[in-house]
Amino acid sequence: MAKTLPKTDVVIVGVGWGGGIIASELTKQGLNVVGLERGKERKTEDYYMVHDELRYALRYELMQDLSKETITFRSNEKIRALPMRQYGSFLLGDGLGGAGVHWNGQTYRFLPYDFEIRSKTIERYGKNKIPAEMTIQDWGITYDELEPYFDKFEKTTGISGEENPYGGKRSSPYPTPPMKKSPAITMFQEATTRLKLKPYMMPSANLSQDYTNPDGISRAACQYCGYCERFGCEYGAKADPVVTVIPVANKTGKFEIRTHSNVRRVLHKGGKATGVMYTDVTTGEDIVQPADIVVLTSYVFNNVRLLLMSGIGKPYDPSAGTGAIGRNYAYQVIKGSAAGFFEKQEFNTFAGAGALGVSIDDYNGDNFDHSDLKFIHGGVISLSQTGARPIQNNTTPSGTPSWGADFKAKSVYYANRTLAVGTQGSSMAYKHHFLDLDPTYKDAFGDPLIRITFDFEDQDREMAKFLAEKCSSILKEMGADKIDYLKELGPYEIMSYQSTHNTGGVIMGASPADSATNNYCQMWDAENVFVMGASSFPQNAGYNPTATVGALAYRAAEGIMKYREKGGMLV
């Protein structure tokens, strides 16, 4: 028999960026908020002098334990899905701060085109440009409507950057200037400028200088140590929820964080949520936390899984194209990168930061003519200097043996003579790409795992080749002596790392006919349930998702306060 606790105003499930922002904003308005986090407590002191690549980058210290809960994957509905038993394609964060602790800090705003992709594509190219099986749709909100929330997120986190020449209009500049330029970054800028492209410094959550945000949170500047991705920041220079928004919520005295609390069901009655049931993983006890408002702010897969297990919303049916929960799963196409090998020049690539880099958007969104191309959208192209750590960075030219004396010699020789120009390609939604509950495999509690059905399409293959060729041409202009780049994109496979930019499953939109939430992230089928994060994205853009996740969270917090006052569906 589960123990029932006193009711709270709001309960949030998952205390990462979404949960931290919601907690901060609502507690400042006087609401009592309980945050349930299934992982452990975290603080900056945990990472003092812990530049341990083996522990964090290869043994996944900050990630979910796959022996207790994982995902299953299949490329199509005709084959059986199998569990992901070791990390590969993406990494699932665990613990206070979630994936916001181990991210790199690349903080792009989505383009105006991204939010109105279907209508803008049809307007320019006609309906036939969109394949019949592609289920892209407008978000139900425009860039201009979301811009004030982008601005608020950037000021809270202290984003360092300069204006994107292809970006939407900004209400104010970035709060801190761009990061330092390394010789490699300068080479990229000069080469792309000669190619008549428009480079700009990557927007970075790694502070370029000391900064105090509007909530009074002060943080120190980045030291360019190169330990960002898969690591917590020992300086607090990388914006994460633990050093930005969670302290603000804690200071109000109205926020209670319960770690080691695995939420397993959203409880509901009469079309509204009544609270959640979670298991205290330290004792095995089941606990009910009643609440007036339930906010799901966990990772994409868990948001979808909780709704499906709880029976809230209609599950997506790919054969009929009906239902919303699990619909429009999308990922990202990272396979269009190129590596350049320089015989006469060396670079100090061991130094860096997660978002130290320079980008171009000339081939992103609809910034170029797609009339004669067999794909829509595109991706950002960047040269990033994230820190070439010793274990995972030993790129060698194609044709080098994968072991033995020649491999070792070339690994050492090219360690400081290699630069990568990479792309993050968009991912369009398709009718047959979706999330549902696996009928066979279960987690440690006996609950079904989430199942992914996904593969690359012709859209992805054409786009990846196009972007890879552009990356190669930039490296050629930079003076690389040998260049390796993608010639053909094969099937999607779950084993090699690509990105943790999974999206969709609880998508937002203008109508309950084709979406799960409105543009405040409020569920159509349960008005006091708000679901946020990248699960809201109807398809994925050619950027990292975090800035858009943050902006949507600030808007959702505003919506929750409106709902608290008046009730009903927000408009």
Give your account of this protein's structure.
Keywords: FAD, Flavoprotein, Oxidoreductase. The protein is of the alpha/beta class and 571 residues long. It has a single domain, classed as FAD/NAD(P)-binding domain. Helix content is 23%, strand content 20%. It contains 12 helices and 23 strands. The strands form 5 sheets. Strands 1, 2, 3, 9, 10, 11, 12, 22 and 23 form a 9-stranded mixed beta sheet that branches. A 6-stranded antiparallel beta sheet has the order 6-15-16-17-14-20. The chain has a 4-stranded mixed beta sheet with strand order 5-4-19-18, with helices on one face. Helix 1 packs parallel to helix 12 and helix 6 crosses helix 12.
Structural shape: globular
Largest sheet: 9 strands, mixed
Q: Tell me, what is the CATH class?
A: Alpha Beta
Mean of residue pLDDT values: 97
Number of strands: 23
Number of domains: 1
SSE order and pairing:
Elements: E1 3-4, E2 8-13, H1 17-28, E3 33-36, H2 53-58, E4 71-74, E5 82-83, H3 99-102, H4 112-115, H5 117-125, H6 143-157, H7 183-194, E6 200-201, E7 211-212, E8 218-219, H8 246-252, E9 255-258, E10 261-269, E11 272-280, E12 285-296, H9 300-310, E13 327-330, E14 338-341, E15 357-360, E16 379-384, H10 405-413, E17 418-425, E18 434-442, E19 448-453, H11 458-478, E20 482-485, E21 503-505, E22 522-523, E23 526-531, H12 546-566
Parallel strand pairs: 1-12, 2-3, 2-12, 3-9, 4-19, 12-23
Antiparallel strand pairs: 4-5, 6-15, 7-8, 10-11, 11-12, 13-21, 14-17, 14-20, 15-16, 16-17, 18-19, 22-23
